[in-house]
Amino acid sequence: MRIVCIGGGPAGLYFGILMKMLDPAHKISVVERNRPYDTFGFGVVFSDATMDNMRKWDPVTADTIEQAFNHWDDIEVLIKGRRMRTTGHGFVGIGRKRLLNILQARAEELGVELIFEREVNSDLEFPDADLIVACDGVNSKVRAKYAETFQPDMLMRPNRYIWLGTNRPFDAFTFDFRKTEHGWFQSHIYKFEEGAATFIVETTEEAYLAHGLDKMDQGESIAFCEKVFAEILEGHHLVSNARHLRGSAWLSFPRLICGKWTAFNGNSHVVLMGDAAHTAHFAIGSGTKLALEDAIELTNQFKTHGAIKDSIPAVLKAYEELRRVDVARIQNAARNAMEWFEVVGSRYADTLEPEQFMYSLLTRSQRISHENLRLRDKTWLEGYERWFAERSGVPATNERVTPPMLTPFQIRGLSLHNRIIVSPMAMYSAEEGVPNDFHLVHFGSRALGGAGLLFTEMTCVSPEARITPGCCGLWNDAQAAAYKRIVEFVHRNSQARIGIQLGHAGRKGSTRVAWEGMDEPLPDHNWPLVSASPVPYLPDGQIPEPMSRAEMDEVRDQFVAAARRAAAAGFDILELHCAHGYLLSSFLSPLTNRRSDGYGGSIENRARYPLEVFRAIRAVWPEDKPMSVRLSCHDWAEGGNTPEDALAFAKLFKAAGADLIDCSSGQVWADDHPIYGRLYQTPFADKIRNEVGIATIAVGAISEADHANSIIAAGRADLCAIARPHLADPAWTLHEAAKIGVKQVAWPKQYLSGKSQYEANLERLAAGVKA
């Protein structure tokens, strides 16, 4: 084949090398605009795993790189006068120029044609090419030419950064956080060769402008950074090699995602690779990793399908399908890490103690979890667990340290023995709103299963407030008596506490039970619906009536009456349901609230009625018992509420006396488009907790102790609500504790023989012995 790589970075060079190794008969050219030894930036970094992959494909290049790279395992964090270190992280650093020179030499050795100082303006300049690899960077001219095909989505991120270097020696990947009069600055520092380190300085746009950095030239910017980071530089200087940049050389990071990576120009097949196809923020150091692994995967597909011209369409199709999954995973992690640094000053640096700040930093991408940290540095993690446990009130013992999810939590007069919650989950099994034996067994078994707190399903404040005919209610004494029986069982037979969630279905009421058609209207015996505005949930659903002031008063009083009954029944906490498109949620969302009176329009107006209800309940709910509010923190639909709106609502509810925000999302608009994934709603709890200063509950796709420990240890939430896993396993908390080797958790005395056998079976399984 005739192959042309436009762009002489790691992607193009390494692909040329691998394809020449696959078949020396290929005629391959790599065309680069710069001179052979020109490069910008200083060092690049990638993981041990990438080196292992390179070693499989080209041991010669891998060996040469290994002789030139600097390997380190330690990460060091400096903040608020503290210097903290952890090990076991496995990074490789090498000068970008040295890496390119190694790849250039290897390519020439194998017969790849290297063409320097040629500016390529179009792929059509190579009419003889069977395959054109566009690896011409984030500002790719080839991608721009076929933008309609490649569908690039470029977003400039808000932070500013400057890429510098220093001759100050560093023996760890170092993060240094410094507060100035206008905000926080952070440096990302790593050694890439003897006597040389990359030194990236990053800050917010606000701090950048407030310090006048936009008006400084490069020399002035460097002098500013030397002053801010004088302590860690220890008299050494910072330097720049960004001669090609005008002004101060401060940049904004371009996040790039492309809808397609391949095209046909009428003569040649064109494929994007490296930064031309996707970018990953330097916060996890994956740009070079992605470029090299792009080259490996494309070569692998030629090896699989045949390295001939006729195979190109099938190769490119398979390459894009397979590679897109891995790239999305890395980009997602990079986005998490990038966003962490974008809000570090407003969310973490001032609020978290240094120990927790470091844990949050290490787990910022959500690729590194609690147990993964244990594998990397057991000593450091156990020291952190001990620190966290002591601050949660757990006395020091010689037993294994209590992991974060099993530490106690206190809020008002409520003491929870651990931080796991059984989520409110509708069972649709009540009779005339009365909980029955099913509910007793359902809640009782989960209370015995080790959770610290369990919530009832959304309990409705009137017959018309129900979602379905099978929903529980608390509008009469019979319902209250049935609930009292359940509460007393939980209190008498377990350490768990139990809370009630009160709500009103609003526009989502009068529907069938879930297994007969979720959200589908009842075939008969419907009841009238009310909402903020006459907007049905489903297009063919019943149209609700907009609430009048008199109806608002009536419903508010129903909530108050239900709260009084809940208090009398002995519930430990009350949660007000203001999420998922139900009545109070319908006031909060602009998608469902189209009122022109004082209850519509601005955030304050939309929150007015839910706050009225909350305050009325708080006035009758016992002072020593907490109240939480469940919010949809993202409507996942155009024109709906965003996390910023949720932040505003959380501030209002906190001011009204809320103790907890239960951070869910979606289900407000039938045509919403959530971006699902592991822990996908946790960022909402993180944002509200650390920007509003109120305790939060994380919920959604949390299914392992590792997830819960990571969330709680990092301060992303105070409690974790587990839903579906608790349906599958009532003793989820006890079982997850056993899986991570925690034996000091109390089981019900009636089940103690099962505890020892369960733990023994897990130990046998871990040892590879069949039970």
Automatic annotation (TrEMBL):
The UniProt record lists the FAD-binding domain at: 3-325
- List the Gene3D superfamilies hit by this protein, alphabetically: 3.30.9.20, Aldolase class I, FAD/NAD(P)-binding domain
User: Pfam families recorded for this chain?
Assistant: FAD_binding_3, Oxidored_FMN
Q: InterPro entries from the entry?
A: Aldolase_TIM (IPR013785), FAD-bd (IPR002938), FAD/NAD-bd_sf (IPR036188), OxRdtase_FMN_N (IPR001155), YqjM-like (IPR044152)
Q: Where is the NADH:flavin oxidoreductase/NADH oxidase N-terminal domain?
A: 406-733
Q: Which domain of life is it from?
A: Bacteria
The record ties this protein, via PANTHER family, to: BLR3436 PROTEIN, NADPH DEHYDROGENASE C23G7.10C-RELATED
Could you tell me what this protein is called?
Bifunctional salicylyl-CoA 5-hydroxylase/oxidoreductase
What organism is listed for this UniProt entry?
Bradyrhizobium quebecense
